[in-house]
Amino acid sequence: MQIRLGVLTLSLLFFLAGCVKVETIPDGEKEATRGFEKDNPKEGMSKRTLLIYMIASNLGEDLKNNLKLITSVTTKENLNGGHLLVYYSENREKARLFEIKPNEKGVPTEYIIRNYEGESAVSKETMRNVINEVVSLYPADSYGMLLSSHASAWMPVGYHTMLRAFGEENGKWFEIDELAEAIPDNLFDFLLFDACSMGAIECMYELKDKANYIVASPSEILTVGFPYQTILPHLFTKEADLANVAKDFYEFFKTYVYPVGNISVTVTKELDGLAAITKEILNGDEKAVESLLVSEMQVLSYLPKSPVALVDFGDMIKHLATGEQYQRFEKALKKAVLYPYSTKQIYATTGSYYDVTTYSGLSVYPLRSDYTELNNWYKNRLRWYQAVF
Fold this sequence. Notes:
Distance between the termini: 35 Å
Number of helices: 14
Helix content: 25-40%
């Protein structure tokens, strides 16, 4: 959904752009990019390295606006002794890795670390190489990663020829299991997706070994993206303040010109417990799921050309569980999914708006018997299916 920022916000962005410098660091001086070691941060201050991985596609102007907002609040105080790295891919032929930090005069500055040519941003090798370089150059007590681009959970567009999950580049995408292969296990404290529909239980389970927490929306996110001017400082506190990241996202979209959006924070260590009670409720009965009517469940995402909507995970389970089972499911869900905020409506890129009457924080695919090829992929490739059926 191509929706532009308001005139006042754009004016602010253009003003801020005039306060940004860009410098290229010679190869022999890359050690200088390591931040504020000379400043001797106070004991207890965060030493986090945050990598923002942006794939522009046709979101170029929106992502550039996001970068302006990010840069505008990249102060020494907000970085809190940490490092902010951005991998920005304009297209397959042009990408760059840079650090944003204040220079000696306090002016937010981009320090170019590396330019990339002819390397696909949706390649497992490229993402892994970028992560490895960031970790090598910017060792830290903790790491976070923010991923920004188009996305569609694990769902297909023209699924008979291609599935997709995250990061559109000239018609190519990461599939969700490929994305999981690209991200090292147990490296990141959190992953944050500024991308549509990644808050699906299938995605969370596929990525559960990659980070302690995953922040994502199970619905479409408008192209304006996250309110970076308020959330960025939360990502550099001693313990990343994901509660306020979720709250700020909600408060921003609740009063936005198009007031549609939802968010949640998944605690990945709790997902196996959630899978266990789900498996008990499903009891291997695919037919019971297939018999449910999507029209009677809460729709959270309906992507162009996708064969079926993604529905609210908790709502689907409620249609299948006994009362006692659902009580235990709710306990497991509340441990696994924190801060489930939603506006009164959500937008689907099919052009429809859906009222939100129930919201668990995650979506799920309700198996449909008439999508054999889709189901075969789901059953053979996704860890979630293998865990609950």
